[in-house]
Amino acid sequence: MGRYRVRVATGNSAFSGSNNQVQLWLVGLRAEVELGLRLRPARGQMEDFEVDVSEDLGPLQFVKLRKIHLLIKDAWFCNHITVWVFEQSMEEKEIVFPCYRWVEGDGIICLPETTAWMIRNESQGLFQKHQEEELKARRTLYGWVSWKKGIPLSVAAASEKDLPLDARFHEEKKVDFERTRVVGVTEIALKRLYTLLSSWNSLEDFDQIFWGGKSALAKRVRLSWKDDDFFGYQFLNGVNPTLLRKSSSLPTRLVIPPGTEDLKAQLERKLQEGCLFEVDFSLLAGIQANVIQGERQHLAAPLLMLKMEPDGKLLPMVIQLQLPGSDSPVPPLFLPSDPSLTWLLAKAWVKNSDFQLHELQAHLLKTHLMAEVFAVATMRCLPGMHPIFKLLIPHLRYTLEINTRARTKLISNGGFFDQAVNTGGGGHLDVLRRATTCLTYRSLCPPDDLADRGLLGVPSAFYAHDAVRLWDIISRYVQGIVQLHYLEDEVVRSDPELQAWCREITEIGLCKAQERGFPVSFQSRDELCHFVTMCIFTCTAQHSAVNQGQLDWYTWVPNAPCTMRQPPPTTKDVTLEMVMATMPNVHQACIQMTISWHLGRFQPDMVPLGHHKEQYFSGPGPQAVLNRFQEDLYTLEREIVARNESLDLPYEYLKPSRIENSITI
Ligand SMILES: CC/C=C\C[C@@H](/C=C/C=C\C/C=C\C/C=C\C/C=C\CCC(=O)O)OO
Ligand SMILES: [Fe+2]
């Protein structure tokens, strides 16, 4: 018995309130009581009321709530219920029941109090029963589907409309996304009209469409894209810093033609000096090129060799556009000393190839699709009261919807890849399949990946430096939360939901990825922390590193052509006509500009890394861990700002204030 003050907190997004009435129960260890209220929750409001309860409820464990509609169902977004307990001769006690979900229909929803997982063994099985019922319902809502064979599984949803309401964009996000889509459609139409009667036979003609959404750096790209140091810089700190690696030997595919022995000597000297680097696009070899409006497109599988200069500049030394083969046992090598248009076209082929592997491997597969596997497995295996659910859920916001939209608009039949990209038309799916077969756990963990690629400690590798710093900061945050909940390794080993989550990711979502280093169980807190750190890093920092740069590096189309309309050159005699016949046409270039702007622009409702408002945990312990996380991020922010001040090209993509807390675009 005692007096209770109850606070009902409603979400702040549009339509979060409800005209339906809400009924509440307090459920204690010894009894439960219906509060007899009929509340109409209002958007953004916290509504308090007090009740005297005659029964002895015992320690509160749940709040149950139900929305009652007379005529019209009106969904309600409940943030949380907070209860203050006034008991005789005891100071007031605050108990929080997190929700952060839509309440639809008229079913009863059970909200465990925030520390339930820690006391689950003393609750006469009440929490266990709740967890089982919750996961049963979630497994019905969140199903797996194989969208295309040979790539990670996705959420079962033909379009975003099929997703559960809790996975959908909130109104503000949806309106913004649709508005910019309309802007994009309009922009493409206007550019087509504007260029209908104009020429398209010089590189400067791309200026005719170089308006609309673009950044200051995009304007710099337009001026500097032909420069070799600007070209090389992008493999270190551009939109795709994932392919560059330090050479440990001359690649076997690099067949040196007779008469170019001095090139071989230069390469070997740079190798000996430890400053030879390479980017190998062999993954593209043999991929079927797209046919766009009846016009066959073309693909290459380049190898690029670069040298790291003492001043930190990375300069291209040689480009081989195709693998040696029976029809071309000694493919031509293109050099900086070649005629300028020849060398420019060879570099354009490298950047077109980089566009393919960036968008499909680094961006879609290694961030979006990985995050989707984490999201579906989390919803299917971890109950809301589980500490790893609480840790991860803020980093999974909106991901299922943006990925579903990508599958229906970008990489679908007739989508933008089919309309304007030379791996479109089905080749893009083969690239995804090949990339999936070489997707290792190590490649998703920067300390391992950058060590394997020889990029640790390289002064001008700003992505590498910032990625390792962020990994360490996120790792400390994860360890802080894990150590509050798993007091020893045995607790990890004996947590059935956690072990099921691990298996569901590796064996189901990633289609038996244990052969590529992914775990099928966690044997220690360290193993758990490493994996969860990888999840959060992938969903936040890594996506920021490979998504934001689309606006900067892809809107000046010649810097990263989305398609190539003629075969790669086999001689050094390249004319401007050949270059312009190869580069994307007006329509393809307009699509590239618009999509790059749409996907790379700053999201208006973005939540910066570590600054989500939802409070899934309560108490001083978790709050101190989150505070430390935010402090560490702020320290890194200041470090990066200070470093960037001395740079001609500041590296901004891993500035914590620019990293979104989840993959939403
Ligand atoms: C290869 C894709 C890489 C990563 C996925 C990407 C997510 C994209 C998700 C949705 C984008 C879908 C469509 C774009 C929407 C509008 C574009 C604007 C205008 C297009 C004109 C038109 O609609 O005809 O990560 O960011
Ligand atoms: Fe993205």
TrEMBL record:
Keywords: Calcium, Cytoplasm, Dioxygenase, Iron, Lipid metabolism, Metal-binding, Oxidoreductase. PROSITE patterns: LIPOXYGENASE_2 (PS00081), LIPOXYGENASE_3 (PS51393), PLAT (PS50095). The record marks 102 as: Essential for stabilizing binding to COTL1. It comes from the Eukaryota. Residues 117-665 form the Lipoxygenase domain. Ca(2+) binds at residues 17, 74-75. SUPFAM superfamilies: Lipase/lipooxygenase domain (PLAT/LH2 domain), Lipoxigenase. Fe cation binds at residues 363, 368, 543, 665. Residues 2-117 form the PLAT domain. One of its GO terms (biological process) is negative regulation of platelet aggregation. GO terms for cellular component: cytosol; sarcolemma. Its cofactor is Fe cation. Its main location: cytoplasm. Pathway: Lipid metabolism. Binds 1 Fe cation per subunit. It is found in: Cytoplasm. Belongs to the lipoxygenase family. This is Arachidonate 12-lipoxygenase, 12S type. The gene is ALOX12.
